């Protein structure tokens, strides 16, 4: 099977039905896109490399899901509405069974969020998926890391830590029951981008970021861009269902520095607490208030007794981890 047969069979869809923002998708040298009047484009790119971002044992359908999910999570963190994406795909060989599963998982999530594949590239090489997503938000309403304000409440969506727990299980450093292993593995391989919550927080939250490299590290980006500090109730961070069965030290490692959660950290003024809960309910996404942003620089982590927690474990860094 050649490159163009591969594209036509697995990644070309019926584009006759109009899709917002997409005048022309796959089929020419470029896609033709246009934002809704009064909106701004938001664009992000993430790459998944075998052996670095995913294991060779992952099911193709889950890999297709995750490749798009981690990109949609960036749009969610900015409060954007997904519109279009491109896929650059390197393959060791044109494996039809693998491609069928990959495309099925990719398009199931794309359809769930109304986002269209509008182009990309394929080549032979080590397995690598690189997706660029495009979304839009009303002009001036995108959620940014730099918008946080002293006195804001700090929230996190969903739960943290199960993805890192799965990695520890694969490494053989922890033993899990069959049920907990499947729960943790699903969290690692099938993250759910919080797109609806991000949109519901527009005009309400002051800042947001998604948790890709770990809570401490990603919150640190918000603090740096906003010139603020924070106090966080470390043991109040919501634990994943599998992680909740583990010792406290492992729970802290996975929730504070684990990464691969793709939940949202966001800040909002205390006066908006009822509105934040309404946004949580409207998007069917639980949120937990875990701390407060402060003018004093630095991150202060407290344990359940309110004592300072000495934490020196770094979040994920591709060139240090």
UniProtKB/TrEMBL annotation:
<dbReference type="InterPro" id="IPR016188">
    <property type="entry name" value="PurM-like_N"/>
</dbReference>
<feature type="binding site">
    <location>
        <position position="45"/>
    </location>
    <ligand>
        <name>Mg(2+) 1</name>
    </ligand>
</feature>
<comment type="similarity">
    <text>Belongs to the thiamine-monophosphate kinase family.</text>
</comment>
<feature type="binding site">
    <location>
        <position position="44"/>
    </location>
    <ligand>
        <name>Mg(2+) 4</name>
    </ligand>
</feature>
<dbReference type="Pfam" id="PF02769">
    <property type="entry name" value="AIRS_C"/>
</dbReference>
<comment type="pathway">
    <text>Cofactor biosynthesis; thiamine diphosphate biosynthesis; thiamine diphosphate from thiamine phosphate: step 1/1.</text>
</comment>
<protein>
    <recommendedName>
        <fullName>Thiamine-monophosphate kinase</fullName>
        <ecNumber>2.7.4.16</ecNumber>
    </recommendedName>
</protein>
<keyword id="KW-0418">Kinase</keyword>
<keyword id="KW-0460">Magnesium</keyword>
<feature type="domain" description="PurM-like C-terminal">
    <location>
        <begin position="149"/>
        <end position="301"/>
    </location>
</feature>
<keyword id="KW-0784">Thiamine biosynthesis</keyword>
<feature type="binding site">
    <location>
        <position position="46"/>
    </location>
    <ligand>
        <name>Mg(2+) 2</name>
    </ligand>
</feature>
<comment type="function">
    <text>Catalyzes the ATP-dependent phosphorylation of thiamine-monophosphate (TMP) to form thiamine-pyrophosphate (TPP), the active form of vitamin B1.</text>
</comment>
<keyword id="KW-0479">Metal-binding</keyword>
<feature type="binding site">
    <location>
        <position position="29"/>
    </location>
    <ligand>
        <name>Mg(2+) 3</name>
    </ligand>
</feature>
<feature type="binding site">
    <location>
        <position position="53"/>
    </location>
    <ligand>
        <name>substrate</name>
    </ligand>
</feature>
<feature type="binding site">
    <location>
        <position position="316"/>
    </location>
    <ligand>
        <name>substrate</name>
    </ligand>
</feature>
<feature type="binding site">
    <location>
        <position position="212"/>
    </location>
    <ligand>
        <name>ATP</name>
    </ligand>
</feature>
<feature type="binding site">
    <location>
        <position position="145"/>
    </location>
    <ligand>
        <name>ATP</name>
    </ligand>
</feature>
<feature type="binding site">
    <location>
        <position position="210"/>
    </location>
    <ligand>
        <name>Mg(2+) 3</name>
    </ligand>
</feature>
<keyword id="KW-0547">Nucleotide-binding</keyword>
<feature type="binding site">
    <location>
        <begin position="120"/>
        <end position="121"/>
    </location>
    <ligand>
        <name>ATP</name>
    </ligand>
</feature>
<feature type="binding site">
    <location>
        <position position="46"/>
    </location>
    <ligand>
        <name>Mg(2+) 1</name>
    </ligand>
</feature>
<feature type="binding site">
    <location>
        <position position="213"/>
    </location>
    <ligand>
        <name>Mg(2+) 5</name>
    </ligand>
</feature>
<feature type="binding site">
    <location>
        <position position="74"/>
    </location>
    <ligand>
        <name>Mg(2+) 3</name>
    </ligand>
</feature>
<dbReference type="GO" id="GO:0009030">
    <property type="term" value="F:thiamine-phosphate kinase activity"/>
</dbReference>
<keyword id="KW-0808">Transferase</keyword>
<feature type="binding site">
    <location>
        <position position="260"/>
    </location>
    <ligand>
        <name>substrate</name>
    </ligand>
</feature>
<feature type="binding site">
    <location>
        <position position="74"/>
    </location>
    <ligand>
        <name>Mg(2+) 4</name>
    </ligand>
</feature>
<feature type="binding site">
    <location>
        <position position="121"/>
    </location>
    <ligand>
        <name>Mg(2+) 1</name>
    </ligand>
</feature>
<dbReference type="GO" id="GO:0000287">
    <property type="term" value="F:magnesium ion binding"/>
</dbReference>
<feature type="domain" description="PurM-like N-terminal">
    <location>
        <begin position="27"/>
        <end position="136"/>
    </location>
</feature>
<dbReference type="InterPro" id="IPR006283">
    <property type="entry name" value="ThiL-like"/>
</dbReference>
<dbReference type="GO" id="GO:0005524">
    <property type="term" value="F:ATP binding"/>
</dbReference>
<dbReference type="GO" id="GO:0009229">
    <property type="term" value="P:thiamine diphosphate biosynthetic process"/>
</dbReference>
<dbReference type="InterPro" id="IPR010918">
    <property type="entry name" value="PurM-like_C_dom"/>
</dbReference>
<dbReference type="GO" id="GO:0009228">
    <property type="term" value="P:thiamine biosynthetic process"/>
</dbReference>
<dbReference type="InterPro" id="IPR036676">
    <property type="entry name" value="PurM-like_C_sf"/>
</dbReference>
<feature type="binding site">
    <location>
        <position position="74"/>
    </location>
    <ligand>
        <name>Mg(2+) 2</name>
    </ligand>
</feature>
<feature type="binding site">
    <location>
        <position position="29"/>
    </location>
    <ligand>
        <name>Mg(2+) 4</name>
    </ligand>
</feature>
<dbReference type="Pfam" id="PF00586">
    <property type="entry name" value="AIRS"/>
</dbReference>
<dbReference type="InterPro" id="IPR036921">
    <property type="entry name" value="PurM-like_N_sf"/>
</dbReference>
């Amino acid at each position: 099977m050649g490159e163009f047969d591969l594209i036509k069979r697995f990644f070309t869809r019926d584009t006759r039905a109009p899709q917002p923002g997409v005048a022309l998708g796959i089929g020419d040298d470029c896609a033709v896109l246009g934002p809704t009047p009064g909106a701004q484009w938001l664009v992000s790119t993430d790459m998944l490399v075998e052996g670095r971002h995913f294991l060779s044992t992952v099911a193709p359908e889950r890999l297709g899901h995750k490749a798009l999910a981690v990109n949609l999570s960036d749009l969610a963190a900015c409060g954007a509405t997904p519109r279009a994406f491109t896929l650059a795909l390197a393959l060791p060989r044109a494996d039809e069974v693998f491609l069928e599963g990959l495309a099925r998982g990719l398009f199931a999530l794309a359809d769930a969020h109304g986002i269209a594949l509008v182009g990309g590239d394929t080549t032979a090489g080590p397995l690598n998926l690189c997706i660029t997503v495009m979304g839009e938000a009303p002009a001036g309403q995108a959620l940014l890391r730099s918008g946080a304000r002293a006195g804001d409440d700090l929230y996190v969506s969903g739960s943290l830590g199960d993805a890192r727990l799965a990695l520890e299980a694969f490494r053989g450093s922890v033993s899990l029951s069959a049920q907990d292993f499947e729960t943790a593995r699903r969290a690692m391989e099938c993250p759910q981008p919080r797109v609806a919550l991000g949109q519901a927080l527009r005009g309400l939250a002051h800042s947001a970021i998604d948790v890709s490299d770990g809570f401490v590290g990603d919150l640190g980006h918000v603090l740096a861009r906003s010139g603020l500090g924070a106090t966080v109730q470390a043991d109040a961070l919501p634990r994943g269902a599998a992680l909740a069965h583990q010792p406290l030290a492992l729970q802290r490692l996975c929730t504070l520095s684990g990464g691969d959660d793709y939940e949202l950290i966001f800040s909002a003024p205390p006066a908006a607490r009822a509105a934040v809960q309404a946004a949580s309910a409207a998007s069917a996404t639980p949120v937990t208030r875990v701390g407060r942003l402060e003018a004093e620089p630095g991150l202060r982590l407290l344990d359940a007794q309110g004592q300072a927690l000495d934490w020196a474990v770094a979040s994920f860094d591709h060139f240090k981890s």
